[in-house]
Amino acid sequence: MQVYEGKAKKVIPLDDGKAIMEFKDDATAFNGEKKAQFRGKGWLNAQISAFLFKVLEENGIKTHFIGIAGDNRLIVERLKMYPVEVVVRNVVAGSLKKRLPLEEGTELPEPIIELYYKDDSLGDPMINHHHAKVLGISEEEIKEMESIALKVNEILRKYFAERGITLVDFKLEFGRNERGEIVLGDEISPDTCRFWDAETGKSLDKDVFRFDKGDLINAYEELYERLTGQAPTRR
């Protein structure tokens, strides 16, 4: 079986309908133009993703997460992934501030959902429901993914707020399992979300690396500790 390797993860298929998702220490930004390695990043992303998948499962969201398979590895259900990223935005940041006449940090009156086509060669362009239909994704499938994404946002926004963290925005990916269900896949980590300290606005995510805001591992470790209530055990 073919091993898929992306910029920050490897997916190793197993024979029983499962796969190993291995998180790397690599960090990339701006479509791979900026690259670096940070010892311990893979461990932190794997552990944070596992923790958040458990939170979502406990609140009725179906995910591909099965268990932890090692320091930087998760066991997951193998999915047939959709070539679409579903982005939920609660606060103006990142590319949104270039597209709306609103200041960075402005809280949106309601969450905004955006769709992006997963293709590095095209720069992961934003698409709409009509584009998705041309790509073979039905209106019903897109609406179900968007509905799940809003439920995820409701759960995680509250969860992070209780820990003094603002969930600014985040990216989700979905796939179908062998039973035909649309299931949340990929990861939920500071690589794929924006987290700000609710009081100071300090970044606790990959923007620390993107924009040289400080020590990336320190930011990820702080996020891990505030989420789990425990100091990281490995770096």
UniProtKB/TrEMBL annotation:
UniProt gene name: purC
Native organism: Thermococcus eurythermalis
Biological process annotations from GO: 'de novo' IMP biosynthetic process; cobalamin biosynthetic process
Pfam family, one: SAICAR_synt
Lineage: Archaea, Methanobacteriati, Methanobacteriota, Thermococci, Thermococcales
Family: Belongs to the SAICAR synthetase family.
EC number(s) reported in the record: 6.3.2.6
Residue ranges of domain SAICAR synthetase/ADE2 N-terminal in the record: 3-226
UniProt protein name: Phosphoribosylaminoimidazole-succinocarboxamide synthase
Entry annotated with the keyword Manganese: no
Superkingdom to which the source organism belongs: Archaea
